[in-house]
DNA sequence: GCAAGGTC
């Protein structure tokens, strides 16, 4: 009889395969590893009688590592790690499994590999082959390919054995080697570069701190930082919208403007006035239709993690731990699966039947099985199948509640561990306190088990249920050519929502309307709101980002998130939302400033693409390894050359350490000109701790003379060229490089500029972009204050000093609302009282922010070419106001507006209607119309306040 | 001391 050694990827699969093939007629014995049993039985393969031994590994049997002489961190230059020899070996904790395989393989004729049918599984198959062939060269080796652990598939796989796929395995070999080389080189490089140079306050002992870099963890960090910067750089923008209500016997209907909202106040007012003048509403459309809300797809790992985070605020790591325990105890199926569709051969009814007796959802399960109820529906297909595991579903009934804490060994194990730990650390505590804590732990953990089990069961029952049905009514009306709509919904059948309590679908009544009907609105208001930034990334958002970009696998995503927390790169708040720490932000900022996208997902995506090419035979492993490692080594060497960028970014957030040898000071600090204020020292080029460039007197703090440079400056280098016109000289010209995306169209990225006052380009850029837009976009107040800080003669940009508080949208000051902005009043007042000569550059109007005289200038940007504005003559002050906005009395603006914006298509403009009620008053007193259509009181022009006309006819606006 | 991928 042929002896066949069968090896599965994990003990559970070995058990399932053996049970199915033997029809449960098998013997079990121990191997050398306590987890990996050996099952024995007889079975016929293609008519050949076989004695089957089925055992398992636990995932990868081998690891890839550098040879010993490269393993110490100081043993070599990290750049050498791109070429240092690596080896694959069986680590200490897997030697038991290796010995079992060797012992059994010696006695067998065939080796059949039952590893998971994905690339990693194929690679593990080759690891198993290597070990087995090492002791028995005559083995016949075959691969079993199965798509689910169900009877038909497993028997089919056993009768149709194939050859292992070398390409699949090669792809994984390449990935492992690339991950190791990139990860180890960058981790050693940035740890050794930064750890001793800065006081990194997040770490208890920063001498042992590891600043790891990994091709998965860094893009994950990148997602968190990018969202954080997006929030920091968000500029609130005020918008206006018209709302209207209609009261009838059946109740109140609220109509919203089908334009959404406009960002232009005057346009909004004109449209609003047209509505007020002819307020009769005509119903143009009444549409009624049936709407379905579908149940979710069957549950994959990522969906389980996302939903547990959303519904229970469990971290993905917690979820996977609890799911693993539920799986080990037999309550749910294998929890690491990409599959979100059930095989047609899965017996779904039997799973539902098991739950008929449940005290809470049992009656729902009964209704599902009752053909007369019509509740059953075959689950939809989510389109993913890992060919190894079914979607996560319940496999054993539990009534839950009190039984969890009694019958689950995990809880007892945890309690044991915790008791030992607490007793050893806090031996002075009374037993009573320890018991109380244990009870709490027992309760919390059983609570998690219970909630996750409930989610898996309810999700499964929802999947096999009919969608919820609603009747939706949409009513559209027309007022003076403007269209408004309102909608209502009545739930006709809740169906799956009866069991899936985590989702809701609200009823909202709308009174009956008929086409052609006319009415006078109960209210017609012009409301305003401001755009708001998107929220910080939640754990579910982060998982979605990773999933979409292909960062990590279903089984490892939670590990990458946990790694960021462990490395102090990010923190998570009570709402499961992530913010970068100073450390995380500084690292991303450093690489960003180098111009590398090492913190973006593209690198991993490219690697994944190459792996795919290897796995289908289009490229060889050697070819991909060579090109990828060559590129990464070049990138690494470049990063070493540009390490000053990392140091500068770190310096923004952290104090230099005493251990620092100080050899990395930036090349800044050269003289630009003699200081005209103190006439003693020189002005020098500096980059301050917020990352902004400035030229300050080296006599600081005695002399506080300073010239701030535009926010978009990326690089600034002093040249030998001298300005011909500025005094006192010599004033050396500076070669600037601006960040392309931050300067308006029409400006060059490269600019040879003078800080002496003659440079129109610099002046315009400061007026338009400010001196700290980069920091507004990414910075936060530093936690420490270096002793050699830059001069601060002038008020710094208020947004910089209080970046988390929403500033006024007109003057960027905090402490007052935009509606109460003093700059709007003072700017107008100044123009009137000083009788200004409106010629370019001639004015004595004091700036309303700092008191320095303003000058009248002409904009030269694409959007506003030729438009005039007043700006403060102090280069350190950002104040400016458009001339035309003063003339017509509307608000001064700091940036060009877009007249009409689609809030749905532009995420930066998502926003609420924060101040609708207060701002209704800005539309004059005409916020209500009477039943006869006459405005109640106080009609007047919204621009100049004259009651004799409306704004669209206001003489101050001209034609 | 470093990666990411399996798994108990």
From TrEMBL:
Query: What are the residue boundaries of the Topo IA-type catalytic domain, all occurrences included?
Result: 165-637
Tell me which residues make up the Toprim domain: 3-147
In the Enzyme Commission scheme, what number(s) does this protein have? 5.6.2.1
Recorded GO cellular component terms are:
nucleus; RecQ family helicase-topoisomerase III complex
Give start and end of each GRF-type domain: 847-886
GO MF terms held by the record:
DNA binding; DNA topoisomerase type I (single strand cut, ATP-independent) activity; zinc ion binding
Q: Does the keyword Repeat apply?
A: yes
What the protein does comes down to: Introduces a single-strand break via transesterification at a target site in duplex DNA. Releases the supercoiling and torsional tension of DNA introduced during the DNA replication and transcription by transiently cleaving and rejoining one strand of the DNA duplex. The scissile phosphodiester is attacked by the catalytic tyrosine of the enzyme, resulting in the formation of a DNA-(5'-phosphotyrosyl)-enzyme intermediate and the expulsion of a 3'-OH DNA strand.
Tell me which family the UniProt entry assigns to this protein. Answer: Belongs to the type IA topoisomerase family.
UniProt protein name: DNA topoisomerase
Protein source organism = Populus alba x Populus x berolinensis
Upper classification of the organism: Eukaryota, Viridiplantae, Streptophyta, Embryophyta, Tracheophyta
């Amino acid at each position: 009889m042929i002896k066949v050694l069968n090896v599965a990827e994990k003990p559970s699969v070995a058990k399932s395969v053996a049970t199915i093939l033997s029809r449960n007629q098998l013997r079990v014995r121990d191997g050398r590893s306590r987890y990996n049993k050996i099952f024995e039985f007889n079975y016929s393969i293609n008519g050949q009688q076989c004695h089957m031994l089925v055992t398992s590994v636990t995932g990868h049997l081998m690891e890839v590592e550098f040879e010993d002489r490269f393993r110490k961190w100081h043993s070599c230059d990290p750049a050498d790690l791109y070429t240092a020899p690596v080896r694959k070996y069986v680590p200490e904790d897997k030697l038991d499994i290796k010995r079992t395989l060797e012992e059994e393989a010696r006695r067998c004729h065939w080796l059949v590999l039952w590893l998971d049918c994905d690339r990693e599984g194929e690679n593990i198959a080759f690891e198993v082959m290597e070990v087995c062939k090492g002791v028995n060269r005559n083995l016949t080796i075959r691969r079993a390919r199965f798509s689910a652990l169900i009877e038909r598939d497993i028997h089919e796989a056993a009768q149709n054995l194939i050859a292992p796929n070398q390409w699949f395995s090669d792809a994984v070999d390449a990935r492992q080697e690339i991950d190791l080389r990139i990860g180890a080189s960058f981790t050693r490089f940035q740890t050794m570069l930064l750890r001793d140079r800065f006081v990194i306050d997040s770490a208890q002992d920063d001498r042992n701190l590891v600043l790891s870099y990994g091709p998965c963890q860094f893009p994950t960090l990148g997602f968190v930082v990018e969202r954080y910067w997006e929030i920091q750089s968000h500029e609130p923008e005020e918008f206006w919208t018209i709302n209207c209500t209609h009261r009838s016997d059946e109740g109140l209907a609220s109509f919203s403007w089908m334009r959404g909202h406009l960002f232009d106040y005057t346009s909004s007012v004109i449209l609003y006035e047209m509505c007020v003048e002819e307020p009769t509403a005509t119903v143009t459309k009444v549409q009624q239709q049936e709407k379905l809300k579908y149940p979710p797809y069957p549950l994959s790992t990522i969906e389980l993690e996302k939903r547990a985070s959303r519904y229970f605020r469990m971290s993905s790591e917690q979820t996977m731990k609890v799911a693993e325990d539920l799986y080990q105890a037999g309550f749910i199926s294998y929890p690491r699966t990409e599959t979100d569709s059930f095989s047609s051969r899965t017996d779904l009814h039997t799973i539902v039947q098991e739950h008929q007796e449940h005290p809470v959802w049992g009656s729902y399960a009964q209704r599902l099985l009752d053909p007369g109820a019509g509740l059953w529906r075959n689950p939809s297909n989510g389109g993913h199948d890992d060919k190894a595991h079914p979607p996560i579903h319940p496999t054993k009934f539990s009534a839950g509640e009190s039984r969890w804490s009694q019958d689950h060994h995990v809880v007892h194990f945890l309690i044991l561990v915790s008791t030992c730990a607490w007793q050893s650390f806090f031996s002075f505590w009374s037993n009573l306190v320890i018991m109380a804590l244990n009870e709490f732990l027992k309760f919390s953990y059983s609570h998690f088990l219970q909630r996750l089990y409930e989610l898996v069961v309810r999700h499964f029952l929802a999947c096999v249920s009919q969608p919820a049905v609603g009747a939706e009514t949409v009513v559209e009306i027309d007022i003076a050519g403007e269209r408004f709509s309102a909608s209502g919904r009545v739930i006709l059948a809740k169906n799956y929502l009866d069991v899936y309590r985590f989702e809701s679908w609200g009823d909202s009544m709308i009174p009956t309307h008929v086409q052609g009907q006319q009415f006078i609105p109960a209210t017609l208001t012009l409301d305003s709101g401001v755009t708001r930034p998107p929220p910080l990334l939640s754990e579910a958002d982060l998982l979605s980002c990773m999933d979409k970009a292909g960062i990590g696998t279903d089984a490892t995503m939670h590990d990458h998130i946990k790694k960021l927390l462990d490395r102090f790169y990010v923190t998570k708040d009570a709402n499961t939302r992530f913010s970068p720490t100073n450390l995380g932000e500084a690292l991303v900022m450093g690489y960003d400033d180098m111009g590398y996208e090492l913190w973006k997902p593209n690198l991993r995506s490219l690697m994944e693409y190459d792996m795919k090419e290897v796995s289908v035979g289009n490229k060889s492993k050697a070819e991909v390894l060579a090109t990828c490692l060559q590129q990464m080594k070049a990138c690494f060497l470049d990063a070493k050359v540009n390490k000053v960028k990392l140091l500068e970014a770190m310096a923004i957030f952290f104090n230099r350490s005493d251990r620092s040898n100080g050899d990395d000071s930036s090349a800044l600090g050269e003289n630009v000109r003699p200081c005209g204020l103190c006439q003693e020292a020189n002005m020098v080029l500096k980059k301050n701790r917020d990352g902004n460039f400035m030229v300050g007197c080296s006599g600081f703090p005695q002399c506080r003379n300073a010239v701030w440079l535009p926010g978009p400056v990326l690089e600034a280098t002093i040249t030998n060229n001298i300005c011909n016109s500025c005094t006192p000289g010599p004033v050396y010209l500076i070669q600037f490089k601006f960040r392309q995306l931050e300067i308006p169209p029409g400006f060059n990225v490269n600019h040879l500029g003078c800080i002496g006052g003659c440079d129109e380009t610099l002046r315009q850029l400061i007026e338009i972009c400010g001196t700290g837009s980069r920091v507004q976009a990414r910075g936060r107040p530093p936690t420490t204050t270096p002793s050699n800080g830059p001069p601060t003669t002038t008020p710094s940009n208020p947004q910089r000093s209080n970046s988390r508080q929403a500033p006024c949208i007109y003057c960027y000051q905090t402490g007052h609302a935009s509606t109460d902005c003093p700059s709007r009043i003072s700017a107008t007042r100044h123009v009137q009282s000083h009788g200004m000569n409106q010629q370019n550059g001639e004015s004595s109007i004091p700036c309303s922010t700092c008191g320095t005289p303003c000058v009248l200038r002409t904009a030269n940007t694409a959007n506003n070419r030729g438009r005039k504005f007043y700006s403060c003559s102090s280069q350190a002050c950002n104040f400016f106001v458009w001339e035309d906005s003063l003339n017509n009395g509307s608000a001064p603006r700091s940036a060009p507006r877009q007249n009409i914006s689609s809030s749905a298509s532009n995420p930066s403009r998502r926003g609420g209607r924060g101040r609708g009620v207060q701002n209704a008053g800005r539309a004059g007193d005409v916020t209500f119309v009477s039943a006869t259509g006459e405005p109640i009181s106080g009609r007047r022009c919204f621009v100049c306040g004259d009651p004799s006309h409306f704004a669209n006819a206001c003489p101050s606006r001209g034609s």
